[in-house]
Amino acid sequence: MPTEQDLKEIVRQKYSEIALQDKGTNQSSCCGSTGCSTEVYNIMSDDYSALNGYNADADLGLGCGLPTEFANIEEGDTVIDLGSGAGNDCFIARSAVGEKGKVIGIDFTPVMIERARQNAETRGFNNVEFRQGDIENIPVSKNSADVVVSNCVLNLVPNKVKVFQEIFKVLKSDGHFCISDIVLVGELPANIKNAAEMYAGCVAGAIQRKDYLRLIEDSGFMGVRVRKEKKIIIPDDILSKYLSNDEITAYKESGSGIYSITVYAEVSCCGPDALTCFKTC
Fold it and tell me: Are strands 145-151 and 78-82 parallel, antiparallel or unpaired?
């Protein structure tokens, strides 16, 4: 089995390739991993084009929801986007925070950071900043963000517990987050679950829906609610790379499923353990 560092390197390499591709190429496969499908499938992403702040050059088609739509971002807020890619969600958040607010995008991949910075510079966005970093150790000061958003990224991270702890740490005491992500109901076939390509494609790194929501609550958040949910259908020509025809049929009949969920939650004043509260109530 690959180590956590191995999985991170898989993601870094794949998303370095994706950063150099156009949206159409990315949408032809599972969450952007190259070479997945012989036809163009918009499998996971939602349509951003009608949202204020949308910039087509920054949309790589890598998301699985519209977290900014439910994030209750207000003018003057500081917003952090985890796994900011080419800057799409950051620029939409910027349209909500206005000139008085600030948006910080965090991404693991240097090529993505470079592309996002170019997009921001071209548009003269001086209140949008991009920082390279691992979201298991977010390079932002404690208690500095009003809102955290993320789009189809946490499923790629091996240590999801640490990410939710980091989100809690960087949010202010009255802050909240809104995250779109991929989760599972039931078990995936082992060949898919262990496939590096599917890991970088957002599927094999996903965990059970009930476990995902419990992680959020255990990390100290309150008011956890799913704002949107949709089932993801992976086409047969993708599944056939990993499964026989009989295995595809068995998988479809198993009742297991891959879902995109958009989750909203608020900071609980003293986190998961009031005795070790690291926020000021």
Answer: parallel
For 111-147, write each residue's pLDDT tens digit.
999 999 999 999 999 999 999 999 999 999 999 999 9
pTM of the model: 0.83
* CA–CA distance, 281 with 139 (Å, rounded to integer): 24
Dihedral in degrees, nearest 10, Cα atoms 103, 109, 111, 113: 10
Indicate if the pLDDT at residue 31 is higher than 90. Answer: no
Distances (CA, A) of 143 to 83, 123, 167, 258: 19, 29, 10, 34
**How many alpha carbons fall within 13 Å on the CB side of residue 83?**
25
pLDDT grade, residue 240 (50/70/90)?
confident
State the fold for domain 4-264: Rossmann fold (3.40.50)
Q: Which pLDDT band, with edges at 50, 70 and 90, does 33 fall under?
A: very low
Identity at 37, one-letter amino acid code: S
Asked if residues 38 and 57 have their Cβ atoms less than 8 Å apart, the reply is no
Contact 86, 116 (CB under 8 A): yes
Report yes or no: 68 and 51 within 8 Å, Cβ to Cβ.
yes
CA distances 45 to 24, 61, 74, 101, 231, Å, are 12, 6, 24, 27, 12
Under 8 Å between Cβ of 177 and 72: no
Neighbouring-strand partners of residue 181:
261
How far is residue 67's CA from residue 60's CA, in Å, rounded to a whole number? 16
Q: Rounded CA gap, 60 and 28, in Å?
A: 11
Q: In the chain, where are the structural domains located?
A: 4-264
Residue type, position 266, single letter: E
